[in-house]
Each structure stands twice: as structure tokens, then as C-alpha cells.
């Protein structure tokens, strides 16, 4: 019988063994990123997950936490040019889709769960200068490379964006943020304030008012615009979670980011599925669910001949059924356990 090779095992006391031991110690000592990176922002968590995971072109106006000193506006964005973590720019104080702007018949669509008219005096909005412009920081939720600690990376970028000069670009790291690495998201963003999400049909919002866009960049922008699908944020009567509708072409989908823990959501889905109530009505079908950033997202296929506004009644009916199922703390029946097993068996995880 041949002897087992020891080639892959470092000899005790060797330099390689010491290096492996040191690397293992560093890995064990490194802080583990939270499974729910946005859990400290309960009013915004579900929409942040959606903007991070599957929304193409949107910004989200946020409110600074009380006591946080900011010279600029700082808003979330889905993705920025070059997939960088953050930029700061100047823009007109009252332009549609931005703070201080009125609503209009065309242009980007306000989609957030927040209420009330926005204006320059709101928390998180910087005052306009003599030229009528404000300095705005934009912090991306989708970046390349992906950060190991999403919450920490976003906190550092927000702290930087709150005071950086127009034309600056954030490349990441607490040092670049002026030593703000000890701040968490809830130290910068008001945890009780919902986001005011603005959905765009293109990426023209990437560029400031006076930007000189080269032909190459214009061509890149046109290609990026072609990837955007019609998208809208719906609001259930309960106000719980973040249901997002998207028309994918052959069919539409509704992805409902839920704030409850996975076990609670799975039980509710199982009860509704077993009772034949996991539906938004005619033209809808429960397609399954996925996990992302610590939350569960049920998905429904929808008839894309119907406008997203036509699904409000179906959403409210499902919302009421969901609340009823969530309130049921009895043991699952055999049929409900079978439904849960089927739903879990088809579930995927998005990183």
C-alpha cells in the first residue's frame, strides 16, 4: 500500500506553517459582516435591499441622523459611473426628481414610502448657494468591487459625501472618509426616516448640470439605458415591506422585500400557499422566493398587459392575508409543512 503524501501538509515550525497560522488568526480576528447590513435602519431596510439587489436606476433621498454635522446633501444611488462607491457634484436646487423640486407630468417617478412635500429645508437637504446650486453627494449601493462589509463601507462613503468638495470621487476605506470608520449607518442616517426613492427611466441623472459628456461616454450611457426595465414601487395598505413591480418583457414580476425574519415569512407563505391564498388575483402566480441581505423576497409573476397601478387591489388583498397568516402562531398543519418544504426547496440566495 502506497504511503500517503505529506506534500500538502506544512512541517511544524516551518515558515509556511507560521504564515498559514498567522493568516488563520487574522481571518478569525476579522469582524464578521452582519447578515442584515441595513438592520439598523428599519424604516429604510427593505428599500435599501431592493436598490442594492435588483433595481437598476434610482436614487433615494435620506435624512441625516440628529446630531450628524453635514455640509452637503447625501443620497443613496443604485449605481454610479464606473461602479465607484461615491461622488460629489453640484446641481440646481430645484430640479424634478431631486430635493426641492415639484412634481410634473413627465420625468422620474417618486416611488418612496415617505410622505409630504420635499424641500430644501428638510433634514438632509443642503441650502442652495448664491448661484442656486447645492452640493450633493451620491453613495452607491452597487459597486465594483463588492465590499466585504457593506454597512461599514456605506457608512464611510456617506460620512465622506457629507462634506467632500464637488468633483470628488470616493474610492473606499475609512481613511478616505476622514477617519469616520467607527461610525455606523444609524449614526449617520435617521433610523426612523423612510427613504424618498426616485426611479428613473435612464441614467442621465449620473451627470451634473454642466457636465461635458464625450461621445464615448454618451454611447456607453445609451447602452446602459437599454438595460433598464420599467419599474415601480407599490405601497401596501399596511405599509409593511417594499413591493417592487418590474416589466421584464414577456411577463411582469412583483418582488416583495419583507422585514420579518426568514422563519416567520416562511410560515406565513406556507399557510397562504396551503390555503390557496398566495396570489394577487387573476393574472398572478406565486413564482417562489429568494434570500438577499438577510431578508426573504417572495416573487409573483404578473400579467404584463396590466399596468402596475392596476395591481393595488390585488396587493392589498394579499397584504391583508399576509397579516392574518403572520398573526397565526399555531403549529403548521401537514399540508402547510408540505407547502413550506416546497417553497424552501426552490429558494435561492442572492449575494
UniProtKB/TrEMBL annotation:
Protein name (record): Preprotein translocase subunit SecA
Positions of transmembrane segments: none
InterPro entries, alphabetized: DUF5926 (IPR045970)
Ranges where the record places region Disordered: 1-36, 98-131
Amino acid composition bias (Basic and acidic residues), ranges on this chain: 16-27
Compositional bias per record (Low complexity), positions renumbered to this chain: 106-130
Domain DUF5926: 37-93, 136-351
